[in-house]
Amino acid sequence: MGPPFGATWTDEAWDVVLAAAQEADRLAGTPEAAAFAPADGGRLRRVADGALDALLMWSPADGWTTALPASDPRRALIDLYLPVCSATNARPITVGHLGQSLDGFIATHAGDSQNVTGEENIKHLHRMRALCDAVVVGAGTVAADDPQLTTRHVSGPSPVRVVLDPTRRLADHYRVFNDDSADTLYVCARSLAREGETHFGRASVVAVDDCGDGVDVTAVQRVLRARGCHRIFVEGGGVTVSMFLEANLLDRLQIAIAPLLIGDGRPAIRLSPRLALSDCHRPRYRVFRMGADVLFDCELGSDASDTPIPANEPPITRVI
Question: Is the pTM of this model over 0.85?
Answer without folding.
Answer: yes
